[in-house]
Amino acid sequence: MTKKDIIIVGGGAAGFFAAINIAEKHPELKVAILERGSALLTKVKVSGGGRCNVTHAEFIPQELVLNYPRGEKELLGPFHTFMTGDTMAWFEERGVELKIEDDGRIFPISNSSQTIIDCFLYEAEKHGVTILKNQSVVKIKSEGDSWELNTKTDDFSCKKLIVATGSNPKIWKLLEGIGHTVSSPVPSLFTFNIDDDRIKDIPGVVVEDVDVTISDSDLSSSGPLLITHWGMSAPAILKLSAFGAVELAKRDYKFNIVVNFIKENFKDCVDGLKELKQDLSKKTVFKFTQYNLPKRLWQQLVLASHINADARWADLNKEQLESLANQLTNAIFKVNGKSTFKEEFVTAGGVSLKEVNFKTYESRLHKNLYFAGEILDIDAITGGFNFQNAWTGAYIVAKNILK
Fold first, then answer.
1. Residue 342: predicted pLDDT
2. Residue 403: what pLDDT?
3. Which of 37, 45, 244, 261 gives a 20 to 30 Å CA spacing to 294?
């Protein structure tokens, strides 16, 4: 049986971050990462379209937590300990230059996730972290204050155990076997599949700021909307998918959304269209886009309002004006299914937050058992927030594990 002081199950972002921070401060300890596969940091590799969205430029803890549908309350304290600015400083102190983009996302200046991976691998080797691949854990057993682990090929023991495997159903099952409660996992970050004549021929169209509401619910969001070959995406949709993860799973991803493309109420829109009818009486409705909407979208909404392509504003009757106002402010789309957002996959679900001490990230049920990252029932919207959760949890584990 191989003995280590600290074993980290999971060779991902949280696992490496914890291992490096521990090994830096305590070089006398034997720290090992057990990775189930042959590749390391695979999620880091694909994140941010291969650029690695390290974190997000939100520097106030009370504002940062609002981006977490699950974990908002629990993360407030940890974010006061290790925050976005701390993450940036950590990487820059180790030679990784970062940049803040206009939308607040933070990336390495290299625009390559390999920069982050190389940093982790270099720091892990520098500080003597043992990295063991193809070590799929099949059993976790408490032995007094220590732990024993069995993989498919080897046996290990350690004084302290950190589980940082992300959304791993097999590990969740093992944790349930030692008494932990796990919330059923459901997808949390996905796009909406929509088959609708209004959008099927205009993929690539972006509306800069819309309101989206899920019918028969309190779920709503605002932000950019992207029309895709399969439906709708971009932050307005992704936020809804995150905050509505559990509810939408119950609906089997079949529901209606209401899109307000111009963020005006119906009455004000009708009044505005009446003014346009007077001011642009001789202009063709179809050809002259209004409300700063993309031209292709405007034209589809005009046609959906039963307005001919050659109709002039002066020709519109009351019903047509109201129909157009309805399309602009209250357009209903039927969602039938979901698609994974790019190569990224985020899951709602995990170890119950009630069973974790968020001052240390130690299990409340077992001494010397710690958690970091998405193994917990914490997830966020897109934009670097899931990584910030991983960095914060891993740092606090490293800081407290030897107290």
1. 61
2. 79
3. 244
DSSP letters for 358-371: TTTTEESSSTTEEE
Cα distance between residue 160 and residue 43, in whole Å: 25
How far apart CA 170 and CA 213 sit, in angstroms, is 35
Contact 351, 168 (CB under 8 A): no
Query: Own/partner pairs for 141-148, CB < 8 Å, 24+ apart?
Result: 141/178, 142/178, 142/366, 142/369, 145/367, 145/368, 146/368, 147/7, 147/368, 147/369, 148/1
Average pLDDT of every residue of the chain: 96
Judging by beta carbons within 10 Å of its beta carbon (0-12, 13-18, 19+), is residue 227 exposed, middle or buried? Answer: buried
In contact, 394 and 373? CB cutoff 8 Å: yes
Check pLDDT > 70 for residue 343: no
- Alpha carbon distance 46, 50 (integer Å): 4
The residue ranges of DSSP E strands in 40-129, in sequence order, are 55-56, 98-100, 105-108
Overall CATH class of domain 2-187+344-400: alpha beta
Can you tell me the distance from the alpha carbon of 207 to that of 214, in angstroms, rounded to the nearest whole number?
18
For 162-211, what is each residue's pLDDT tens digit? Answer: 999 999 999 999 999 999 999 989 999 899 999 999 999 999 999 999 99
Contacts of residue 115, Cβ cutoff 8 Å, sequence gap at least 6: 52, 96, 108
Report the alpha-carbon distance of residue 70 to residue 22 in Å, rounded: 27
For the chain, residues classed under CATH 3.50.50.60 are: 2-187+344-400
Judge residue 92's burial from the number of C-beta atoms within 10 Å of its C-beta, 0-12 exposed, 13-18 middle, 19 or more buried.
Answer: exposed
Instruction: Report d(CA 331, CA 325) in Å as an integer.
Output: 9
Residue 307, phi-psi category: left (phi > 0), alpha (psi -120 to 50), beta (remainder): beta
Entry pTM: 0.89
